[in-house]
Amino acid sequence: MKVIVMGCGRIGSQVSELMSEQGHDVVVIDHDANAAGRLSPQFKGRVVQGLGFDRQILVKAGIEQADAFVAASSSDNANIVAARIARNIFRVPRVVARLYDPRQAEIYQRLGLSTISSTTWGAERIYQVLSHTDLDVIQTFGRGEVSLVIVETPPSLVGKTVTQLSVPGELAVVSITRANEAFVPRAGTEFEEGDLIYLSVLSSAMVRLEEMLGLERR
């Protein structure tokens, strides 16, 4: 996949490094001539100096052949302008804009732009950690509506089946790690002592999950 990342700050550089490590063709755009210094020597992509919403710079970066565009500069306005150009003018299939101000996210989502707000994600992650101390939330999706949770099988769940810990549309067991080996369980799979259970959980169902696991609410 050919990916263009606008902005080589902390987020942009990490995304670029990660995509490059996975074998993708990555081009970074940044107005700072020293931006390349933020990338490791192992980075296999290239860096184009300039503004990410300048059409000539975008063409130079290869946006006409791009499969994805990431707007990750330190300016919300610049990210949105660049993202809209990438999506509406160059028809890039996958476009994501990083926003600092979560209040703008809903507006731009109505325009068909995918946005990521580190402010919102961080606040929701802190809330999850403080509110559900016995549940380890390892990943959130969307704007925090769904969480991937890991929990060790409590005594009350040993011998029960996956079906008994599933609620359609709210809770789903997606994987179990047993004796250091992970597998996708069947509906009738029984939980054993020491199992690590991975669940996909709707945020509004976290309390219900705690109750089903027999965990004390804090």
Core attributes:
single chain; 218 residues; alpha/beta; Rossmann fold; five-stranded antiparallel beta sheet; 11 strands
Q: Tell me what the CATH architecture of the largest domain is.
A: 3-Layer(aba) Sandwich
Strand order of the largest sheet: 3-2-1-4-5-6
- Rounded to the nearest angstrom, the distance between the terminal CA atoms is 45 Å
At CATH level 3, the topology of the largest domain is Rossmann fold
Number of strands: 11
Number of domains: 2
How helical, in percent, are the residues?
Answer: 25-40%
Portion in beta strands: 25-35%
Would you kindly provide a written description of the structure presented here, covering whatever features stand out?
There is one protein chain. Helices cover 28% and strands 28% of the residues. The chain is of the alpha/beta class and 218 residues long. The protein folds into two domains: 2-119, NAD(P)-binding Rossmann-like Domain (Rossmann fold); 132-213, Alpha-Beta Plaits, CATH 3.30.70. The strands form two sheets. Strands 3-2-1-4-5-6 form a six-stranded parallel beta sheet, with helices on both faces. It has a five-stranded antiparallel beta sheet with strand order 7-8-11-9-10. The chain is elongated. The termini are far apart. Residues 128-133 have low confidence and may be disordered.
